[in-house]
């Protein structure tokens, strides 16, 4: 089973709203990722968590706040977003951050399509 | 820094025929991993195939196979017996071996399958 789930599938929010995106995996993976993807472009890495600790932050604006409450869950809290933040937000997981065997292979969720008005 | 280049923005193939998607990459490292991901219009990114650089044998997964040429830094994807469900954006991606290295994606190739 290589399933990563994300909720909600779609989200519309105003620039003053606070909302959260949720990602879940039950593969026992210890690395989880947030990506942002614009239409017809490759994903851009935002954050990486390893063993529930923030490992990489790609200089993402503070209006995006990640959280990893446990090894299966990853949240992305959104506040005061801008219209240019409208995109598909993808979550991914991998066994961990090492690269041996297939540990480094990332599995993606279906994404949350976010529209900021 | 590593870069991945997909020189074909769009490709078309007739159903049941074979198509090859190109990918080249630039790296000074000897140990790394290469991936092809497929993203259909439903937009879930799906792993198609994975290749370790230290393996000379080309990876295959059913109708999908790669032509990995390490010296030429080329990693093309061949899709045999194309099906309508193969229509998608295909991303080539590179990851250095070692701890915590990121996936570097190419720009993607849109594959259209004609019936």
End-to-end distance of chain A: 37 Å
- Structural class by secondary-structure content of chain B: mainly beta
Task: Tell me the Rg of chain B in angstroms.
Answer: 14 Å
Q: Count of DSSP E strands of chain A?
A: 11
User: How do the SSEs of chain A run, as a string of H and E?
Assistant: EEEEEEEEEEE
On the 0-100 scale, what is the average pLDDT of chain B? 95
Outline the biggest β-sheet of chain B: 6 strands, mixed
Shape of chain A: globular
- Write down the secondary-structure element order of chain B: EEEEEEEEEEEE
Helix-and-strand structural type of chain A = mainly beta
- Please, what is the average pLDDT of chain A? 93
Can you walk through the features of this model?
The complex is a heterodimer of chains A (117) and B (115). Chain A has no helices and eleven strands. Chain A has 117 residues and is mostly beta strands. In chain A, strands 2, 4, 5, 6, 9, 10 and 11 form a seven-stranded mixed sheet that branches. A four-stranded antiparallel sheet of chain A has the order 1-3-8-7, with no helix packed on it. In chain A, a hairpin with a 2-residue loop joins strand 5 and strand 6. Chain A is globular, with a radius of gyration of 14 Å. Chain A starts with a strand and ends with a strand. With 115 residues, chain B is mainly β. The mean pLDDT of chain B is 95.
